Amino acid sequence: MEKFNIAIDGPAGAGKSTIARLVAGALGFVYVDTGAMYRAVTWKILQENLPAEATADMIALTSRTEIRLVPGENGQTVYVDGLDVTGMIRSAEVTGNVSRIASVAEIRSILTAKQKEMAAGKGVVMDGRDIGSHVLPDAEVKIFLTASVRIRAERRFKEICDTQTEMTLEQLELDIARRDRMDEQREASPLVKAADAVLMDTTDMTIPEVVERILELCQSRVGGGK
Ligand code: CDP
Ligand code: CDP
């Protein structure tokens, strides 16, 4: 069976990475988390203490930074210039700054070129904000995953309530809504549903139900995988 590419986009906490990883596992495809790449660049820029207005320095730093995503049994490990930053890129500081840095068009071009390269051999499930609309416009299967902002905040809250108890559900909801707005309103490849993407509202859907729907869609569009 021919390999194909699957693009999964949507707002924060919609379930993209969870679903993309499971779909990739079921098809024997490679999962690529493009959000981790924007987070990795943001982490590097914060490490270097670059001021918010130093856009040219941020672009130069991005082009000389090596980002590697290595799939493994416990998910994906993210390396920045050889250093494992998998945990560090999920910090509140990175989350609070990533959409600002992801709005710089030249930074997006550098990462988009890497993402296109990663998908060139097909057999990739790539998740992000602009995959179906911009990075892989020819992906054979495109999904736009969404859910109400409340349920997305609740899902995220469940994940972090053991570690960051000082953050309330209301704060988290505001934070997610703010990030969605920035992602939707930026000029360079904003968060948008591609015209040919299938919209899935997962507010009332379980993870296995979403995975099943996507696998069925793959079956009907391209005859499966593997
Ligand atoms: O998992 P979560 O929804 O928190 O976000 P993520 O997928 O890790 O992405 C973090 C941020 O990176 C997003 O809020 C966007 O600002 C940016 N991003 C982007 O601009 N384009 C992508 N293809 C992926 C992420
Ligand atoms: O990648 P994205 O930010 O879109 O979301 P995620 O990190 O994959 O999912 C956020 C949380 O929602 C995870 O804890 C998932 O297990 C959970 N989730 C869920 O409860 N029901 C779904 N249908 C999808 C995700």
TrEMBL record:
Keywords: ATP-binding, Cytoplasm, Kinase, Nucleotide-binding, Transferase. One of its GO terms (molecular function) is ATP binding. Its EC number is 2.7.4.25. Transmembrane segments: none annotated. Pfam families: Cytidylate_kin. It catalyses: CMP + ATP = CDP + ADP; dCMP + ATP = dCDP + ADP. Belongs to the cytidylate kinase family. Type 1 subfamily. This is Cytidylate kinase. It comes from Paenibacillus mucilaginosus 3016. The gene is cmk.
